[in-house]
Amino acid sequence: MGEQGVDFIMNIFFIFLIFIAVILINFSINTSYVYLIGFIPLVLILFLGFYIRKKTILDGLNKTFKKEWGKSLDRKRNFNNIRSLFDYISGENSNEFHIDDQTWSDLTMNEIYTKIDRTITSIGEEMLYNLLRTPLFNKDKLEKRNKFINLLGKNEEFRNSIGTNLLKLGRVKKNYLSDLLWNDINVDTKYKSICMLLGVLPIALGGVAFLTKNVYFVLLIFVVLFMNFKFHGKIKKEIYQYVSCIGYLNSMVATSLEISKIKNIDGFEKYKTMLGEVGKKTEAISKKSTGLGRVEGMDQTGILDILYIVFLIEENQFFSCIGLIKKYQEDLKKLYICIGEIDALLSVASYREGLDNYVYPEFTAENKYFEANDMIHPLLKKPVGNSIVMKERGIILTGSNMSGKSTFLRTVGVNIVLAQTIYMTTSRFYRASFFKIMTSISPEDNIMGGKSYYFREAEALLRIIHEGGEDYPLLCIIDEIFRGTNPVERINASIEILNYLERHNAMPIVATHDLEITDILKDSYNLFYFTEDIDKEGMVFDYKLKNGVCRTRNAVKLLKYLNYPEEIVNNTNKRIENNM
């Protein structure tokens, strides 16, 4: 609320006071009416105070949302917490395809997530992560998702209403709410009656002590207070995790109802109906749990903390609402996902706002087809675009060290994920089949587990083989296949694996230094390469994809560029010449 609005209300208030004063001075009024009339300004002051405070907060939230729109948010993210919703949903839908941990790590998707994430709530933060790890294989669903993203991006009034309401919900340091909703609520309710009794005993005994003036009842009050203190400590250990998030659940229900009141717009119907119907159904939980989720220590005097312990307020509120939470658990999960999806898609709209260029993907019914023009990696500040067409056949990629092979592999993978999750790609044109995607780019030694690099590679490749492409083609990205073992076994095993994948509806994209593999598989794979030029400044990379096979090597050039002793460089070159 602006300063002019506040000044207007205050002027009206002072005029009202003057009016009351004139009445009291000029008219003879019964004393009881004087008190009544005097009480009216007090009520008005309280009402105006709450009204002005609410309007000021809402105006502040609206300004904050507008200020941050289209900008990246620099904040710490705990991915162990953020992934919790994905773990629950993927566990419930284990028959559906999800981006697995190895692929997510290989494609540096935590960094991609961070780039996209402008979510406002803890729920949206989790849902965005879940969306990016759950590719869709249905064009209609993706287009409907895109329609809502565009609605948020283009309709400023609607967007601001959504954003301001989500800001009221906000985020919490550790969100236990998904744990509450997706797990069995295992709380012993035998304490419910005891808590109710101990909560009212101090008041009852205080009344009896006041009426009877009996000191023994005062002593009994102290005994009950001690019992409540001990009981509070015992019960809190069992229900703390639930109590700490029920306050956030209440806010979620309230936010759902507020958003459902926003004027209906084409593309918003599904969310509006869901939030309104389920919000009303679960509204009773809020009434039963008022006061739960209070942050201890928020009252600097400690009075509230004492009252909550003395009367076991949190415990009684918890037991009064936990039954309803169990009853409406499935509805609350739907509400959680709905609110989270709205926030996640709002984040995507904000991310798109800051992009110079992106395109919507086109999907084809052709099997194993991928085409992209001027495709770039979204994390690079000065990216070099590359174009590629793959039809039925995979590709084998060769090239010098640092020439761009690994970046290209990740660029393809990331764009497929973005296309099938948030309906956008960082390219000039994108047309492809729906793909399942799996990678083996950077498996690491597992020292603690006693697994060698080769063992980790073999495990990573086996999971790709097991996934197969029976329902949808599998695009598998492999960097330096079997680099952890000797050349003879590496080359022969690699050839057999790549042949196997081709026969099982997979389209591999493989980077290798082994030219023997390209010579043997040149009839079943398309061949591309990256390379470098040498000038006075050293090696220069153009990062452009080229047709064919790279026959040059730059490992020794790198040694020379780094000023290794000439003896090492010259003798290495002689050894290479003698072995060729």
Automatic annotation (TrEMBL):
SMART domains linked to this entry: MUTSac (SM00534)
Gene Ontology cellular component annotations, sorted alphabetically: cytosol
GO molecular function: ATP binding; ATP-dependent DNA damage sensor activity; mismatched DNA binding
Residue spans crossing the bilayer: 7-27, 33-52, 191-209
One example of a Gene Ontology biological process annotation: mismatch repair
Domain DNA mismatch repair proteins mutS family: 392-577
KW Nucleotide-binding (keyword) present: yes
Entry superkingdom: Bacteria
Pfam families xref list: MutS_V (PF00488)
SUPFAM superfamilies for the chain: DNA repair protein MutS, domain III, P-loop containing nucleoside triphosphate hydrolases
Keywords, comma-separated and alphabetical: ATP-binding, DNA-binding, Membrane, Nucleotide-binding, Transmembrane, Transmembrane helix
InterPro entries for this protein: DNA_mismatch_repair_MutS_C, DNA_mismatch_repair_MutS_sf, MutS, P-loop_NTPase
Cited PANTHER family: DNA MISMATCH REPAIR PROTEIN (PTHR11361:SF152), DNA MISMATCH REPAIR PROTEIN MUTS FAMILY MEMBER (PTHR11361)
Designated name of the protein: MutS domain III
